[in-house]
Design a protein that fits this description.
This protein is mainly alpha-helical. Helices cover 62% and strands 5% of the residues. The chain has a three-stranded antiparallel β-sheet with strand order 1-3-2. Strand 2 and strand 3 form a beta hairpin.
Amino acid sequence: MNAPQTATIAASPRQGIPMPNNGTATQVATEKKLYRIGEVSRLADLKPFVLRYWETEFPMLQPVKSSSGHRLYRQEDVDMVFRIKRLLYDEGFTIAGARRFLREHEGNWDAESAGASHAAEGAAQLLSRKMLLDLRDTLRTFLTLLERR
């Protein structure tokens, strides 16, 4: 009898296979050692010009350049891109604020990000609750006004 053959095909962005979303991008990024700017761009869902701009604004983001001049991102660079994106897009930092935060919290990012995310979730829940209570009070006021007519 013939044994079934199994083929392993490596997923490559150049093969037209869709890239994973941000939740699994870091896992995929750990499979290789160096990444071109286009690959990092797809992983982080950012335009390449944004990455090039961030290189000028964040000294801790320094991809190496190949002999042909291509940017090659190491794993720590890819991780830094995701940190910067989170600070700017999710946490609402300015460029200067994110740069300062990263400079001040270089070694203990994981502890800080875990604490910050728990604090942000708590703040969001309090804000949502306050907004709902304000909305309830406003609706009661309108109802009272309508009942008087």
